[in-house]
Amino acid sequence: MTVGRALAPLLGVALVLGGCAPSSGSATGDDQRLTVLAAASLRQVFDDLAAEFEASRPGVEVIVSYAGSADLADQVLAGAPADLLATADERTMARVEEGGDVAGPVVFATNTLTVVTPPDDPAGVASFADLARDDVDVVVCAPEVPCGAATDEVAQAAGVTIHRVSEEPSVTDVLAKITAGEADAGLVYVTDAALAGDGLRVVATPEAEAAVNRYPVAVLTRAGQPDLARDWVELVTSEAGRDVLAGAGFGLP
């Protein structure tokens, strides 16, 4: 079965405002549909796991919507129907847990940031400290999303004031600007940098160890498919799930 993919902006409009199902090509009324909201940095891993999940459960369709964790948390708190939430940090998940929408989050992966530049490195960025230079245009995640909070934490620990020219809603947006050559440098997760391959240049960033993001996943309290949702958590935390995560560059808790 083909894995459904719904863009977060469409999810927000269709679910929160209109109360409709995600526009992903799914059959309306399918009682074997698992809806997962996941941090943008999990795309590769969750796409792979969704395919495995469907293959082992004939008749089940997995729909994953990717976006910045803060946006996903807002959707859940606004009542968007879904079964699972996976965020890129515990702080964002805690906000949803305090709202009573999830219970018992489980940490399943870790991630850290790294400095990246376009392949030709137009500004000559050699270290994290270079991000403070006035001639280096840096794009980062907005402070309200996990990668942005981690950026601020690393910068503070290193005593570096980043010359930021843009703050983006998700790590994939930062990555897009760097690969398009719209900035001299950026901060993204090491997993996203690895996925981009030759599309960017990675700068060693030992300072990033000051902020390790821990990724939790939780079943929503109003999940329409709680059993399938628990099966998903079991898969993500299983040996097979850990192998997929490690292969994508994630650390394991």
Which tags fit this structure?
253 residues; alpha/beta; D-Maltodextrin-Binding Protein, domain 2; 5-stranded mixed sheet; 22% strand
Count of helices?
A: 9
- The CATH topology of the largest domain turns out to be D-Maltodextrin-Binding Protein, domain 2
Averaged pLDDT? 89
Number of domains: 2
State the total count of DSSP E strands: 11
How does the overall form come out from the CA principal axes? elongated
Rounded to the nearest angstrom, the radius of gyration is 18 Å
What is the helix/strand order? EHEHEHEHEEEHEHEHEEHH
- CATH arch. level architecture of the largest domain: 3-Layer(aba) Sandwich
Uncertain runs are: 1-30
Question: At the first level of CATH, what is the class of the largest domain?
Answer: Alpha Beta
Q: Please name the fourth-level CATH homologous superfamily of the largest domain.
A: Periplasmic binding protein-like II
- Termini separation comes to 31 Å
| Percent of residues in β-strands | 15-25%
Q: Name the strands of the widest sheet in spatial order.
A: 1-3-2-4-11-5
Helix content: 25-40%
Main sheet: strands, sense, barrel:
6 strands, mixed
Structural class: alpha/beta
